[in-house]
Amino acid sequence: MEEKIAELRDVLKKADRVAVMTGAGISAESGVPTFRGDEGLWRNYRATDLATPQAFARDPELVWEFYNWRRDLISKVTYNPAHRALVELERLVPDFTLITQNVDGLHLLAGSQNLLEIHGNLWKVRCTKCHGITLDRSPDLGNLPKCKSCGGLLRPHVVWFGESLDPDILQQAVDVSRNCQVMLVIGTSSVVQPAASLAVEAKSAGAVLAEINLESTPHSRLMDFALHGKAGDIVPRLVEDWA
Ligand code: OAD
């Protein structure tokens, strides 16, 4: 493991263009539950069953209750050493882009700048009637929050299962993936599309791929480096001793 970390650090040091893809695993050590496995349960519901347009159409109060619970939880946590290390990596690499599937806003809070939040942001709400987007950091928005401009029902400004990503943001993420020399894939189960396909784009275009995850994923076999352990332990070591 030590040798692999040192080898990957050398690859990063030589690179001009680095992309990073993160998923829920990078925020796990901050105390944000991941989506799959036992952690992904809220009451008796799977998180992945509530984050859908169908669930919102059927029972918007339930979906808002779930999101208010997540907002409250996330308002009480902060970034961890892995988020911080990516801020440092951005400082060290000439051309750096962070693509995240996370909606928790912890990369922004840590100070990452060149960031694509491809699944949206939990702190933004969108009106289902006038489609206006606003930022609202209150931990609890109540049962059925309404738009201040038109009175329409608000929803979280996040991408739910079965919904399309913002085409401009997705295109930027694809371009970054095709152009990078190294891509780090951190704390994602690599099963949700199109996010998971970005690593495949990078690999096809000749990038070195590295996975940092507690366990193997469907993408582990594509990886030039598969580092298994906690993101909070491994990512900070990639930015040590660059001088
Ligand atoms: P998942 O919950 O599917 O996967 C989390 C991954 O992080 C798993 O592979 C874990 O092994 C790994 N992991 C957990 N703790 C870790 C740690 N401390 N260090 C390193 N790895 C760790 O989350 P995502 O892949 O992000 O969509 O899920 C993708 C999307 O599906 C999410 O963006 C969300 C979800 O439904 C939306 O919200 C639209």
List the helices and strands and how they pair.
Blueprint: H1 2-14, E1 17-22, H2 25-28, E2 41-42, E3 45-46, H3 47-50, H4 53-58, H5 60-75, H6 81-92, E4 95-100, H7 106-110, E5 115-117, E6 120-127, E7 133-135, E8 154-158, H8 167-179, E9 182-186, H9 197-204, E10 208-213, E11 225-228, H10 231-238
Parallel strand pairs: 1-4, 1-9, 4-5, 9-10, 10-11
Antiparallel strand pairs: 2-3, 6-7, 6-8
The structure holds 2'-O-acetyl adenosine-5-diphosphoribose.
Using brief descriptors, characterize the structure shown.
243 residues, alpha/beta, SIR2/SIRT2 'Small Domain', 2 domains, three-stranded antiparallel beta sheet, binds 2'-O-acetyl adenosine-5-diphosphoribose
The level of helicity is 25-40%
Total strands:
11
Number of domains: 2
Mean pLDDT: 95
The CATH architecture name of the largest domain reads: 3-Layer(aba) Sandwich
What is the assigned CATH homologous superfamily of the largest domain?
Answer: TPP-binding domain
Summed up, what is this model?
By secondary structure, the chain is α/β, with parallel strands linked by helices. The protein is built from ten helices and eleven strands.
Question: What would you note in describing this structure?
Answer:
The protein is an alpha/beta fold. It has two domains: 146 residues, TPP-binding domain (Rossmann fold, 3-Layer(aba) Sandwich), CATH 3.40.50; 82 residues, SIR2/SIRT2 'Small Domain'. The chain has ten helices and eleven strands. The strands form three sheets. Strands 5-4-1-9-10-11 form a six-stranded parallel sheet, with helices on both faces. Strands 7-6-8 form a three-stranded antiparallel sheet, with helices on one face. Strand 6 and strand 7 form a beta hairpin. Helix 6 runs parallel beside helix 10 and helix 8 runs parallel beside helix 9. The radius of gyration is 18 Å and the shape is elongated. The relative contact order is 0.20. The structure holds 2'-O-acetyl adenosine-5-diphosphoribose.
